[in-house]
Amino acid sequence: MALYEHVFLARQDVSAQQVEALAEQFKGVIEAHGGKVEKTEYWGVKSVAYRIKKNRKAHFTLLNLNAPAAALNELERQEGINEDILRFLTVRVEELEAGPSAMLRKRDDDERGERGERGGRGGARPDRGDRGPRRPRDEAGPEEGAL
């Protein structure tokens, strides 16, 4: 059996409990066809890049699968029929990620306020390296800005 990462987007006006029920339904489809769902992650409601079937936001859910191709075909067929599913994407991977996915790690970092080296918006300016400090404008030579 092959390993897959499968993400589906559900309409924003369904509840989180309904999305979890959809994930359980899809898990049952995979298991009925001889596959196994290794991990399920609910990523929450996020904005989409462009409108999808008149929706600007969607519930995102990740399923890590260890399943045969027939199980995946049936899963995608049922998602295509379901009116609550806006989009889905399946990617075959060499190995499944053991811990939380990058999306959950990103959300944890955002909640803690970790924004990188600069310390968030409006932080200190980055080091200018070996260029040295700037000269005042009145000391600029003729080659540096005379038009």
Features:
28% helix, four-stranded antiparallel sheet, alpha+beta, single chain, Alpha-Beta Plaits, 147 residues, 33% strand, 4 strands
CATH superfamily heading: Ribosomal protein S6/Translation elongation factor EF1B
The class by helix and strand makeup works out as alpha+beta
Counting DSSP E segments of at least 2 residues, the number of strands comes to 4
CATH topology: Alpha-Beta Plaits
Instruction: Give a short account of the largest sheet.
Output: 4 strands, antiparallel
Q: Could you list the spans in which at least 5 consecutive residues all have pLDDT below 50? A: none
Mean model confidence by pLDDT: 84
Q: Give the terminus-to-terminus CA distance.
A: 68 Å
CATH architecture type: 2-Layer Sandwich
Major sheet: arrangement of strands:
2-3-1-4
- One letter per element, helices H and strands E, the order comes to EHEEHEH
- Return Rg in Å: 24 Å
Overall domain count: 1
CATH class: Alpha Beta
